[in-house]
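Key result, reporting period 2: structure in, sequence out.
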């Protein structure tokens, strides 16, 4: 018997066989699934429907996955994105994250790992984080319930994973969080790989930067990261 749907997913994959496997597997797991075979169709689907997450192939005709993800973010779509790709270089991974992706899975992959990554990506930070009152750090306000952060003069637009990372740091203000713990809090799994975390921190810093103000997020090399009140 089909389980109750837990999320509404969009799969954009040009390989018909893999797309069919993903559709059947995700539907069996209880997800509502829509699918497209290229980036242009994927962009149209995003314009016409609401999704909880997007599984996105990198190499596709007409509009590739990185280009689609970049256009999603430009148009205000903040759905978490899991990239699927046969490309294995760090440069490819960074390009996907730079476009606004949240996680990366290299082909060939196991369905069990894809499902685990998807569950982790959909999972918000711990309830204690999401139930907390708005957090103030300097003149930045972070509201977990609204999943929104802003300065007095402007909102800060963040992807889901960027917001989750900021929230994990903010509820532990002035406390150094180790890399492995950040992976558990934000991605839902531990990892020895560091470039994904480092790249996401870099994008987050860029978005939080205020002219003439010191950075909020600090690095303790070889240990982790901490968010501190401006001195």
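The corresponding designed sequence is given below.
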């Amino acid at each position: 018997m089909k389980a109750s749907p837990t999320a509404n997913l969009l799969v954009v994959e040009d390989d018909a066989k893999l797309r069919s496997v993903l559709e059947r597997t995700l539907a069996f797991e209880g997800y509502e699934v829509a699918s497209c075979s290229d980036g242009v169709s994927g962009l149209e689907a995003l314009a016409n429907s609401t999704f909880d997450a997007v599984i996105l192939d990198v190499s596709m005709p007409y509009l590739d996955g990185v280009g689609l993800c970049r256009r999603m973010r430009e148009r205000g779509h903040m759905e978490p994105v899991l990239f699927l790709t046969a490309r294995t270089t760090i440069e490819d991974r960074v390009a996907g994250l730079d476009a606004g992706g949240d996680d990366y899975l290299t082909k060939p992959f196991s369905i069990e790992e894809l499902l685990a990554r998807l569950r982790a990506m959909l999972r918000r930070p711990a309830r204690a984080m999401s139930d907390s009152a708005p957090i103030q750090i300097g003149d930045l306000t972070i509201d977990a319930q609204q999943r929104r952060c802003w300065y007095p003069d402007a909102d800060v637009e963040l992807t889901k994973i960027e917001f989750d990372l900021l929230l994990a740091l903010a509820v532990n203000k002035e406390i150094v969080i180790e890399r492995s713990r950040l992976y558990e809090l934000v991605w839902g799994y531990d990892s020895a790989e560091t470039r994904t975390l480092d790249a996401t921190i870099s994008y987050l810093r860029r978005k939080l930067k205020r002219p003439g103000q010191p950075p909020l997020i600090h690095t303790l090399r070889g240990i982790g990261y901490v968010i501190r009140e401006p001195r």
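The first helix runs from residue 16 to 28. The chain has two domains: 8-122, 127-227. This case is discussed further under Risks and Mitigation.
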